[in-house]
């Protein structure tokens, strides 16, 4: 299968590298990572070890050297930051993928992709942990799985047969590469649970400057748990059964199993880059019909950092 991974950072490089064990993969990312992969391949270290040689490009237009995609991909996996989703949709529309799968942080990405593409759009989550060590080398910090299904609306995810078949094809592609994958009819419960985890862990670790493990039982653990519970209550208001206890336990479990990891938002803050706060806690605030004070506070603090000295 021809697979295009749009957003070859940590997660995109890891999943793209794993998929490259069984498929023709093209990574779309930035230099010097892309040029290193093109020259000497992609090395996967950590809990998975492999060296693969996917194609790697910085854009979807063919350059003077003839580098770039030549065929419409059978599957495009989108792993860019949420604020780059509209740009990803615009770029992907030019290569006309058969199926598009979002494995991004936050909520609302699939709606953006579907608005700019004619292809079936799938929603997904993954529990893989990844860290881009240096150009050409990505570490698997946790072996996980992928859950995906048709992008649907509320109150139920309703998809036509073509989209359901597209989801099954995408799932089969991951399984062929020995990636544990579940295809579900309605991915929204998985998306909301992941949102609760991200809402609890990402901004709290970013503001406190701590690794994930500090939220297992440290001083900020209660803040993370309350942000997740507020997210679960908003999920239930939108017809998704996510109990408070499950949201709390999910935060604690992820914080424990990824104790030495730095969240993506902490990495962004440390590097002085924009964060995905709008698609995570901001999404909770914007879709809440009740007070969500912890999420509101976290959004305000991160946005204040972005507007102040953080991005200067």
Question: What features would you highlight for this structure?
Answer:
312 residues; 4-stranded mixed β-sheet; Rossmann fold; alpha/beta; N-(1-d-carboxylethyl)-l-norvaline Dehydrogenase, domain 2; 8-stranded mixed β-sheet; 2 domains
Number of domains: 2
Shape call? globular
The CATH class name of the largest domain reads Alpha Beta
| Percentage beta strand | 15-25%
Please compute the radius of gyration using only Cα atoms.
Answer: 19 Å
What summary fits the major beta sheet? 8 strands, mixed
**Which structural class fits the helix and strand makeup?**
alpha/beta
For CATH, the homologous superfamily of the largest domain is named as: NAD(P)-binding Rossmann-like Domain
Number of contiguous helices: 11
Count of β-strands: 12
Mean pLDDT level:
92
Q: Runs with pLDDT <50, length 5+?
A: 153-157
CATH level-3 fold name of the largest domain: Rossmann fold
Proper CATH architecture of the largest domain: 3-Layer(aba) Sandwich
Which bin fits the share of residues in helices?
Answer: 40-55%
Please provide a written account of the structure.
The protein is an alpha/beta fold and 312 residues long. It has two domains: 2-183, 3-Layer(aba) Sandwich (Rossmann fold), CATH 3.40.50; 188-306, Orthogonal Bundle (N-(1-d-carboxylethyl)-l-norvaline Dehydrogenase, domain 2). It is built from eleven helices and twelve strands. The protein has helices at residues 10-19, 33-40, 85-93, 109-116, 161-176, 188-208, 221-237, 244-257, 264-271, 281-286, 293-307, and strands spanning 2-6, 24-28, 42-46, 50-52, 55-57, 75-78, 100-102, 121-126, 129-134, 137-142, 146-150, 181-183. The strands form two sheets. The chain has an eight-stranded mixed sheet, sandwiched between helices. Strands 4-3-10-9 form a four-stranded mixed sheet. α3 links the parallel β6 and β7. The chain starts with a strand and ends in a 5-residue tail after the last helix.
């Amino acid at each position: 299968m021809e697979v295009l991974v749009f957003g070859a950072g940590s997660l995109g490089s890891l999943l793209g590298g794993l998929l490259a064990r069984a498929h023709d993969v093209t990574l779309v990312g930035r230099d010097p990572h892309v040029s290193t992969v093109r020259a000497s391949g992609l090395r996967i270290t950590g809990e998975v070890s492999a060296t693969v040689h996917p194609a790697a490009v910085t854009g979807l237009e063919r350059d003077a050297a003839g580098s770039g995609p030549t065929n419409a991909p059978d599957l495009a996996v989108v792993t860019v930051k949420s604020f780059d989703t509209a740009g990803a949709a615009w770029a992907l529309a030019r290569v006309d993928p058969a199926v598009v799968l979002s494995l991004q942080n936050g909520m609302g990405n699939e709606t953006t992709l579907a608005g700019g593409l004619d292809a079936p759009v799938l929603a997904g989550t993954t529990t893989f942990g990844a860290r881009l060590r240096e150009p050409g080398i990505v570490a698997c910090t946790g072996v996980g799985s992928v859950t995906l299904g048709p992008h649907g609306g509320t109150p139920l995810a309703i998809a036509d047969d073509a989209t359901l078949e597209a989801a099954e094809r995408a799932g089969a592609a991951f399984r062929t590469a020995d990636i544990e994958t579940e295809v579900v009819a309605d991915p929204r419960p998985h998306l909301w649970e992941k949102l609760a985890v991200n809402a609890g862990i990402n901004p709290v670790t970013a503001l406190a400057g701590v690794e994930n493990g500090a939220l297992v039982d440290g001083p900020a653990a209660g803040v993370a748990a309350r942000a997740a519970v507020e997210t679960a209550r908003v999920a239930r208001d939108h017809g998704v059964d996510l109990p408070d206890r499950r949201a709390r336990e999910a935060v604690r479990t992820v914080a424990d199993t990824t104790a030495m990891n730095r969240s993506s938002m902490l990495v962004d803050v440390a590097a002085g880059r924009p964060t995905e706060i709008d698609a995570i806690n901001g999404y909770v605030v914007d879709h809440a019909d009740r007070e969500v004070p912890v999420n509101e506070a976290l959004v305000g603090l991160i946005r204040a950092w972005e507007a102040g000295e953080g991005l200067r």
